[in-house]
Structures are given as structure tokens and as C-alpha cells.
Amino acid sequence: MTISVRLKFFASLREKLGEGEALALPAGSTVGAAREALRARGGVHAEALAPGRAVRSALNQKMCAESAALADGDELAFFPPVTGG
After folding, report:
1. Hey, which family's this protein in (predicted)?
2. Domains in the chain and their CATH numbers?
């Protein structure tokens, strides 16, 4: 069984990867598994979402860890940390 998650990218990630897309994943997948699936595409995805890169994630508009479980129809957003003054 697979699930479909709506992805959104913000700030510099949006510039590199686009606004967003739908991603099909095996049921029981986590936020970390979604990031890994995107990195496996190679190219700009691998670079933008590389391990060690500061990337935050939000699941259904709430900050989450990479261990958060995904469900069919969830919205998953990736964005760089924000700084300001």
C-alpha cells in the first residue's frame, strides 16, 4: 500500500526545487524517508536536501522531527532555518 503526500518547498528550497509536488511513498513512511526519497533523485534534490544541510520540516503546518510518521493526504513542507533581527 502506498500513500500520497503533498510537498511544499519554501525560500531557497523553492528556488531550487519548485513550489511543490505530490510524492508517493510506502505506507508507514516517515518525514526522513520522504527526504531520502527526494535525495535519491540526484541532482538539485540531492544537493538541496543533503545530509548535514540545515533543513527544517513541518507536517500539516506544525514543526516536526524526521521521525514523524506520514499519512495519506498529509502536507509536508521543507524550508531552511530562518534568521532575522
Report:
1. Belongs to the MoaD family.
2. 2-79 (3.10.20.30)
